[in-house]
Amino acid sequence: MTTTTTHHGRSDRTGAAAGGLVTFAAVLLFVAGILDLFRGIMAIADDDVFVATPNYIFKFDLTSWGWIQLVLGVIAMVVSAGLFSRALWARVVGVGIAALLIIASFLSIPYYPVWSLTLIALYGFVIWALCVVRREP
After folding, report:
1. Nearest to 76 by CA among 114, 39, 117
2. Burial of 115 (0-12, 13-18, 19+ CB in 10 A)
3. In this structure, is residue 17 part of a structural domain?
C-alpha cells in the first residue's frame, strides 16, 4: 500500500488519522455534554438519584450544582460543533472545557460516584485526542 505525501510533508494517512481523532473528540464531547446536561436537569429537579453525603469538604447546594452542570454541558455541546468544523478555537476551548468538566465531575464524586468517574474518563479521552493532533497549516 502506498501513501502519498502532501506538499507540507505529511502523508494523507496521517492527515486522515488526525482528522479522525478530532472527530472522535467532537463526538465524545458532544455525548458527554448531553450527559452533563441531563445530570444538571436531574439535580435542578432535586431527583433522588443523587447520594446524600453529609460530611464532604466541597459541599454544594444540589440546585446550584445542577445549573453549573447544565451550563457546562451546553458549552461542551457548542464547542463540539466547532470541532466538527475543524475550528482551531474549538480545539483550544475544547481542552479547557473538558478540564473544567473533569474538575466538576471530581467535585461531584460523593453525590454520584460511578457517573462522575465515567465522565472523568470520557473528558480525559477528549483532552488526549485534542492534544495529540498537530495543528494543521
Report:
1. 39
2. middle
3. no
